[in-house]
Design goal:
555 residues; mainly alpha; elongated
């Protein structure tokens, strides 16, 4: 019983150590990690190096994968750029396995004593040092747990039942492989399972072939665990997770057949290589893990573009991703200010389209329940997201010290963005108001007429922005004439003539007329910028300017 208790305690300390190391290193590196990714992914070699570092720090490819997913979702990088970080994070996890293969018993005892002293000095309560202290504690517990596993496994090896199981394992490598898969799915870490397998092999509970099979099963189990964690994802996040699963699986496809051939025909292949490199079985298993991760990373990197095209076909971009992603502007691009200003105009036209589509949901003659149509809340969130990207992009362009004329153009675009933000918020208030969907009978006709009028104004603005040279300023100006006196009189007359209107109906009337009045005013203010020549009166059409600059809208 003491043997199993020793092994169980060792596993407990080992898992506590893994959690302390990974969790606190992520907190230490997490604040600026996404920003670092954004700067590093421009060059694949630097992105790969960053992936190795990230994997070594977090000891969790799942953590790195979901950090990368969030980075792409935040618009800091494009999905294709982030792939080397994810792929090479698997190689970074070798750090723990290699370190665990060394005989550092004395150092571990000194480390645990040092950590105890740090806790006595209350450095664990310091904002500056508490995560570092926790990492050191995790390292100490991890290696102390490995020592306990080795001690318990040495006694376990001498048990007759274990000897029988070992002999059976020689003829049932599929079972051992499945054990590696299942344990890794539960533990969520192939490096963790590899370290435990190495400790068991050093104690003689497993032979080298069995330990190698467990390592390969752990690799597949890690891929399955990643896939299961992303069961509810779709679109680009799903593609990134699937690529990580492929990365973890491709090494298995290469190395398992090599091991079978080596065992059946006694050819010197992967197992012979690690035996040549080190006489210690624990180090041999660590080298197998390194070899597996390197082969996986190199193979998937060499065929990355075909792999990713296949994944794109399997999981195309979702409607939400298409809405939330800017199509023309993008931060950090090397683009001249004049051309960037023209791209901003095209992106702002999309925002007008979002506002128009939101109004479609409350129009009496629109099929508001039509399947596949973006809902108002989704359009509102997408407009806010894209609007933030536009504002940041304008800020970058203005910070590049453009010529005075271009700076004035950018200033006009900045003002226009504020007007479009306000217009979108006003329209969202209208379309989300419950009284607009079920107005009192005496208000229904009025509210429907205001919605139709506002929809016509916004639709006309959208259509005219597509062809700035033919922009009919005078017709839109007439459509957006001052309505404040008319709206005020209308509100007073309706309330006086409908004494039966309750508080809810009066509030609906006030909201609808106020939003309509303010929205029309915002469109008119936007038109004043157009008429002043700060937006669309450019000497060169957008397509010609992009062609001259060698740029194209973002796909």
């Amino acid at each position: 019983m003491s043997i199993f208790a020793t092994i169980f305690a060792g596993l407990g300390l080992f898992f506590i150590g893994v959690k302390l190391i990974g969790g606190n290193l992520r907190l230490m590196a997490g604040r600026g990690f996404r920003a670092v990714i954004g700067r590093a992914v421009a060059r694949p070699s630097i992105a790969a190096a960053l992936g190795v570092v990230a994997g070594a720090l977090t000891q969790s490819t799942n953590a790195v994968t979901f950090i990368c997913i969030n980075t792409v979702a935040a618009g800091l990088v494009q999905a294709r750029q982030i792939l080397p970080v994810m792929i090479w994070a698997n190689v970074g996890t070798c750090a723990l396995v290699l370190l665990a293969a060394l005989d550092v018993h004395l150092l571990v005892l000194l480390l645990i004593g040092t950590v105890g002293l740090l806790y006595y000095l209350e450095l664990d309560k310091s904002a500056r040092f508490r995560h570092l202290v926790a990492v050191l504690l995790g390292v100490g517990l991890l290696f102390f747990g490995i020592d306990l596993i080795r001690d318990g496994a040495d006694g376990l090896r001498r048990m007759p039942e274990v000897q029988t199981a070992i002999n059976y394992g020689h003829s049932s490598f599929i079972l051992i492989f499945l054990i590696g898969v299942v344990i890794t799915v539960i533990a969520q870490s192939s490096s963790t399972v590899t370290v435990v397998a190495a400790a068991m092999a050093q104690a003689g509970v497993l032979d080298l072939n069995q330990a190698i099979i467990i390592v390969y099963g752990a690799g597949l189990g890690s891929g399955i665990a990643t896939w299961l964690m992303a069961a509810k994802l779709s679109g680009t996040p799903k593609r990134l997770v699937l690529l990580q699963t492929f990365t973890k699986s491709v090494g298995i496809v290469v190395l398992v057949p090599l091991l079978v051939v080596e065992m059946q025909f006694e050819l010197p292949l992967a197992r012979s290589l690690v035996e040549f490199l080190s006489p210690r079985v624990q180090e041999q298993i660590a080298l197998v893990y390194v070899l597996y991760q390197l082969i996986s990373a190199f193979v998937i990197s060499a065929a990355l573009d075909p792999f990713y095209r296949l994944i794109q076909r399997l999981y195309p971009e979702t409607m939400e991703e298409s809405l939330f992603k800017p199509q023309f502007v993008y931060a950090g691009g090397d683009i001249e200010a004049e051309t960037g200003a023209l791209l901003v105009e095209k992106e702002q036209q999309r925002l007008v389209g979002f506002i128009r589509d939101s109004l479609d949901h409350v129009r009496a003659d629109a099929e508001a329940g039509k399947a596949g149509r973006p809902k108002p809340q989704l359009l509102h969130q997408a407009r806010q997201s894209v609007g933030s990207e536009i504002s940041a992009f304008i800020g970058e362009l203005m910070g590049s010290s453009p010529p005075r004329e271009t700076m004035e153009h950018l200033a006009g675009l900045h003002s226009a963005q504020g007007l479009l933000d306000d217009l979108g918020n006003e329209v969202h208030t209208l379309v989300m108001h419950p009284g607009v969907y079920t107005p009192a009978s005496s208000l229904a006709s009025l509210i429907n007429n205001m919605i139709e009028s506002l929809h016509l104004i916004v639709t006309t603005l959208f259509d005219e922005l597509e062809d700035p040279e033919a922009f009919r300023y005078s017709s839109l100006l007439a459509m957006t004439s001052d309505r404040s006196d008319m709206m005020g009189k209308l509100r007073r007359d309706l309330i006086r003539g409908n004494e039966a209107l309750g508080n809810t109906q009066q509030e609906t009337l006030f909201t609808a007329t106020t939003v309509f009045e303010h929205s029309v005013w915002l469109v008119r203010r936007y038109l004043s910028l157009v008429n002043a020549g700060k937006l669309s009166a450019q000497p060169e059409p957008l397509v010609a300017s992009l062609s001259r600059s060698g740029l194209a809208p973002r796909p």
